Design the sequence.
C-alpha cells in the first residue's frame, strides 16, 4: 500500500546547511514534530554507506511521527532501507525505471522546471511533481532558471498532479505560492540551519495553512 | 544462474580517459574483441540517466562477445538495465545489502586495500575481490595507500576469493602480479586512451597468459 502523503511542508535536508548527518537527524526530528509533513534526504556528494546509515536513522525517527522519508535520486539506497519513496530529477533514472524498481507501494516525485516538463510528466508512474525554482535559491548549484510567481501560477492552472513548490521559499513568501495553486512548499534553508527549528517550522506551517483558509 | 566470469583482463572504463560515453563504448568493443574478459563501467560524476543509457549500450555490445558488464557502485542502475554484476567499494552499499538487492544471479565484487579488509571479506556474499592499488596510480583520486608487489604477494598467500589486482598495472608489469597470485589484472589507462586499443589489449593478455604458463 502506498503511504498517504501530505506535501504541505516538505523539508529537504542538506548536509552542509544542517550541520552534517547528526544535524540533519536533529533537524528532521524537530521539524517533523512541529509541522513538517514530509522529509527528503538529499546529499549528492555522499557515498552510499553514509546515505544508508543516515537514512536508516531518519526513517526510525520519522516513522513514529507519521512523516514519510523520501530519498533523493538513490533508488538503491531507498530499496535497501525501505524508504517511503524517492524523488528524481530529469537527469536521474527515468520514472518508468524508478517505478519498476520500487513497485506500486512507494511514493515517486519528479522535478519539473518548465511547462514542457510538466506536460511530459508520466501521470501513471509518479505521485507528485516538484516544481521550481519559484524564486532564486543559493542552495542548489545546478538549479534551472527561476520561474517566478506569475509563471508559476500559470503552470498551476494546468497541473496534472499534486505539486510541491521549491526554490527560495521561506516564511513571508510561502502564502502566495500556496495561493497560486501549489499543494505545498519545499524548503531547505528556511528550516535547515535556523537557530530555532521548532519556531521556524511552526511559522511556515501557520502561513501555509493560513493561505488555504 | 550466475554468469561465469574470468578475471584475467578486467577493463575499467573511465569517461575522461576513454573520451566520454562513445569513447567508452568503442574502447569496450575493441578490448572485448581482443582479449579483455570483463568490463566495468565507472563514472562517479555522471547522473544516472547517462549511466543507464551508456550501460544499456555497453551491455548490448558486450553480451554477444560473452564479456560480463559490471556496474561500479550504482546498484539501481545495474538493476534497471540488468547488468551482469556490480563492483562496490568499502564506502558503498555494504555487501549484504547489495546481495539482497541483486539476488543470487549476479556477480558482486568488493574492493579491498589491506589485510584487514581481505580478512573481513564476507565470503558467502561476494564473488571476487579487487585488491589494490598494487602500484601508484593517477586514475583514482581517492585511492588507498599503495600496497606494493611484495605485500601484495603476501596478501595473495591467504586470499579467500578470486582476486583481480588493480592500480598502475600495464604491459610490462602485469606478469609479476599474476605470478604473485592474482587471478587477473584490472586496468584503466593501459587500455583507455591508448592509440591502438586492439594491440594494447592483446599485448596485456599475452603477458597475463604467459605468466601462468
Sequence:
Amino acid at each position: 500500500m502506498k503511504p498517504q502523503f501530505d506535501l504541505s511542508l516538505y523539508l529537504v535536508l542538506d548536509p552542509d546547511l544542517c550541520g552534517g548527518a547528526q544535524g540533519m537527524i536533529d533537524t528532521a526530528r524537530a521539524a517533523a514534530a512541529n509541522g513538517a509533513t514530509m522529509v527528503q534526504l538529499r546529499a549528492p556528494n555522499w557515498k552510499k554507506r553514509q546515505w544508508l546509515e543516515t537514512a536508516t536513522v531518519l526513517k526510525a525517527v520519522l516513522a513514529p511521527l507519521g512523516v514519510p522519508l523520501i530519498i533523493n535520486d538513490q533508488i538503491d539506497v531507498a530499496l535497501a532501507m525501505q524508504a517511503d519513496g524517492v524523488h528524481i530529477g530529469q537527469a536521474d533514472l527515468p520514472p518508468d525505471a524508478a517505478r519498476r524498481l520500487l513497485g506500486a507501494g512507494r511514493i515517486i516525485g519528479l522535478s519539473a522546471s518548465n511547462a514542457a516538463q510538466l506536460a511530459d510528466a508520466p501521470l501513471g508512474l509518479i505521485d507528485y511533481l516538484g516544481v521550481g525554482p519559484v524564486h532564486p535559491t543559493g542552495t542548489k548549484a545546478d538549479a534551472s532558471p527561476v520561474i517566478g510567481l506569475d509563471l508559476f501560477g500559470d503552470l498551476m492552472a494546468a497541473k496534472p498532479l499534486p505539486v510541491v513548490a521549491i526554490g527560495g521559499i521561506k516564511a513571508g513568501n510561502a502564502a502566495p505560492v500556496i495561493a497560486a495553486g501549489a499543494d505545498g512548499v519545499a524548503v531547505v534553508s528556511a528550516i535547515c540551519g535556523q537557530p530555532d527549528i521548532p519556531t521556524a517550522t511552526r511559522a511556515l506551517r501557520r502561513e501555509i495553512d493560513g493561505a488555504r483558509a
In short: Residues 9-212 of chain B form a domain with the TIM Barrel fold (CATH 3.20.20.70). Chain B is about 40% helix and 15% strand. Residues 165 and 185 of chain B are 5 Å apart (CA to CA).
